[in-house]
Each structure stands twice: as structure tokens, then as C-alpha cells.
């Protein structure tokens, strides 16, 4: 083979490999809070280990990442069953189990070309938290206790991120379910991460938290019991566009394997590693995948 022919063949091979790599580029979306950032980083590393060229698009809002999935700008991300049902499909039915909720969202979104892979045991539901000593002082254990206190004239302040404040299954739905309403001036809207520090520093009396957040035990918060079972299951689940899954079916095996390794306790520890121990999202994700033999 002469030099010119070698260069030509080399160029063709490089172009072919480049085309294959481009064909296997998977856009991984994710929301802005810690748990989602960890899951996005894990998914990127896992897909990279499986031979894909993942592109990370993290830090999006719920509506934005779902819209990006629907219009093909994002190929895969981790969503919560309750969000998929209530926010994106306006389904407010009560389900007797997490499995029933998962079955329903899998069916409804399946008709839209969106595939919910295996549901993880992680149930990151919204919850209301207080400083433990303050809750004990006010004798508040349940959401009904909180509602009774507010209706009785207690001027309790509440910290909420903008999304929970506005979404129908957020603060409006909780207040309707429990028959109370915070005074408008007593609701303090702020970024999700600031809710925990505001509550810890006693700038507010209560705040919305994610049930699997590692700062709850670290900061000695107590989660108020949802005694009317208002919150639907919010099981963390990988969601993929059917078009992508049909093209690259091995994505399912990879993400289902990761989902099977997760539970509430594990997720809380991972979140605490970032939010309390100040490790990077990438280090936490990489450590978990390697320690569990996933990469």
C-alpha cells in the first residue's frame, strides 16, 4: 500500500469511527438539586463505561427537562413517579402502592414514546421538616398538628423553593389536603439548597425537604408525618425516549442495574456526602459505581 492510499484509508477509518461515536451520543438530562446531579453524573459515567459518548445536560427544572425529553433534546434522565403522574399527566388518583403508581405512569407515558425503566426503591417524596427541638416544644409531630397550629394562630414561617410553591401537588395541594394556609408573608421562597440552611439557622420554622436528603439527620431535623397520606409515591426511575432505547437496548440493562443498587438509606448517604461532607458530585458518583461493580 502506498503512502497516499494509507492516508486515504486512515482518513476513511477515522471518519467511520467518528460517525459511530456520534451515532452513540446519548444526551443525559437532570434537574438542579443534589440527588439529581448525582444521578446524572452516575448515568454519564455508566454509559461511558458501556461504550457510549454521553453528553451531560444537568441543572434543569422539572418542566424544562421533561420538555427536552419530549422534543428529543434529552435522551434519558431520572424522574419520580409522582411527578410524572401529577405534574406531567395531571393524574391525581390515589394509589395503594408504589408499584401501582409505577404501572400507571409506565402505561400512560409509554403511549407517548417515553419508557420508564425499572423503578428503584428510592422514594424521594416531598416532606415538611422542622428543627427537632422546636417541633417537640410546639408538640408538632404530624402534618395535622402543623395545620392545627397554623389555624390556631401560630405565625409559623415556611421556606419553599419556587417550584414547590407553585406546582399543584406542592404547597397548594398540601394546604388543601390539610385544611390550612400559611399567611402569604410567612412563606419565604428561596433556592432548594437554601431551605436547609435557613431552617438550620432558624430563620424559618419549617420548610419543604426531600425525604432522602442527607441533611435531615445531619442537621437534626424531624420530618412531619403525612398522617393523611397526601403525598403520592415519588420513586426514582430512569426514563428514556423509546426511539433511543430501540436503537440502543443495552441502555436498559445498564440503568436497571443501577436502579437495583439504590434505596432510601443509600441515597441519603450519597446526598450527605455532597451536601454535608462537601465531596464533589463526580467523586461520589464514581465511588458508588466502582464500589458496586457497575464500572
How would you characterize the overall build of this protein?
This protein is α/β, with parallel strands linked by helices and 295 residues long. The chain has two domains: 179 residues, 3-Layer(aba) Sandwich (D-Maltodextrin-Binding Protein, domain 2), CATH 3.40.190; 98 residues, Osmoprotection protein (prox), domain 2 (D-Maltodextrin-Binding Protein, domain 2), CATH 3.40.190. The chain has 15 helices and ten strands. A five-stranded mixed beta sheet has the order 7-6-8-5-9. Strands 3-10-4 form a three-stranded antiparallel beta sheet, sandwiched between helices. A two-stranded parallel sheet has the order 1-2. α2 links the parallel β1 and β2. α2 packs across α15. The two termini are 40 Å apart. About 3% of the residues have low confidence.
Keywords:
295 residues; alpha/beta; D-Maltodextrin-Binding Protein, domain 2; five-stranded mixed beta sheet; three-stranded antiparallel beta sheet; 49% helix
> Which CATH class of the largest domain is shown?
Alpha Beta
Q: Give the ordered list of helices and strands.
A: HEHEHEHHEEHHEHHEHEHEEHHHH
Number of strands: 10
Name the CATH superfamily assignment of the largest domain. Periplasmic binding protein-like II
* Helix percent band: 40-55%
Multimeric status of the protein: single chain
**Total of domains:** 2
Number of contiguous helices = 15
Radius of gyration: 22 Å
Strand order of the largest sheet: 7-6-8-5-9
Q: Averaging pLDDT over every residue, what do you get?
A: 92
What distance separates the N and C termini? 40 Å
The largest β sheet comes out as: 5 strands, mixed
Percent of sequence in beta strands:
15-25%
Instruction: Decide which structural class fits the backbone.
Output: alpha/beta
Proper CATH architecture of the largest domain:
3-Layer(aba) Sandwich
Unreliable residue runs: 13-22
Gross morphology is: globular
CATH fold name of the largest domain, please? D-Maltodextrin-Binding Protein, domain 2
Amino acid at each position: 500500500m502506498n503512502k497516499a492510499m494509507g492516508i486515504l484509508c486512515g482518513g476513511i477509518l477515522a471518519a467511520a469511527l467518528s460517525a459511530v461515536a456520534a451515532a452513540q451520543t446519548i444526551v443525559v438530562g437532570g434537574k438542579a438539586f443534589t440527588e439529581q446531579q448525582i444521578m446524572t453524573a452516575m448515568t454519564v459515567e455508566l454509559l461511558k463505561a458501556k461504550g457510549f459518548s454521553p453528553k451531560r445536560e444537568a441543572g434543569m427544572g422539572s418542566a424544562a427537562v421533561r420538555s427536552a425529553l419530549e422534543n428529543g433534546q434529552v435522551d434519558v434522565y431520572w424522574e419520580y413517579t409522582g411527578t410524572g403522574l401529577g405534574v406531567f399527566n395531571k393524574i391525581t388518583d390515589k394509589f395503594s402502592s408504589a408499584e401501582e403508581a409505577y404501572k400507571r405512569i409506565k402505561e400512560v407515558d409509554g403511549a407517548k414514546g417515553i419508557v420508564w425503566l425499572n423503578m428503584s426503591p428510592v422514594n424521594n417524596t416531598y416532606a415538611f421538616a422542622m428543627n427537632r427541638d422546636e417541633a417537640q416544644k410546639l408538640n408538632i409531630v404530624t402534618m395535622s398538628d402543623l395545620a392545627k397550629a397554623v389555624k390556631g394562630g401560630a405565625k409559623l414561617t415556611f421556606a419553599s423553593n419556587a417550584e414547590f410553591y407553585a406546582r399543584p401537588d406542592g404547597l397548594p395541594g398540601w394546604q388543601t389536603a390539610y385544611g390550612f394556609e400559611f399567611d402569604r408573608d410567612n412563606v419565604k421562597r428561596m433556592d432548594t439548597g437554601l431551605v436547609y440552611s435557613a431552617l438550620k439557622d432558624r430563620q424559618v420554622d419549617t420548610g419543604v425537604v426531600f425525604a432522602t436528603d442527607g441533611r435531615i439527620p445531619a442537621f437534626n431535623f424531624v420530618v412531619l408525618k403525612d398522617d393523611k397520606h397526601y403525598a403520592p409515591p415519588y420513586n426514582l426511575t430512569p426514563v428514556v425516549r423509546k426511539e433511543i432505547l430501540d436503537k440502543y437496548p443495552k441502555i436498559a440493562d445498564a440503568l436497571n442495574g443501577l436502579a437495583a443498587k439504590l434505596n432510601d438509606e443509600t441515597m441519603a448517604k450519597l446526598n450527605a456526602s455532597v451536601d454535608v461532607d462537601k465531596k464533589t458530585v463526580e467523586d461520589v458518583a464514581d465511588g458508588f459505581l466502582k464500589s458496586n461493580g457497575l464500572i
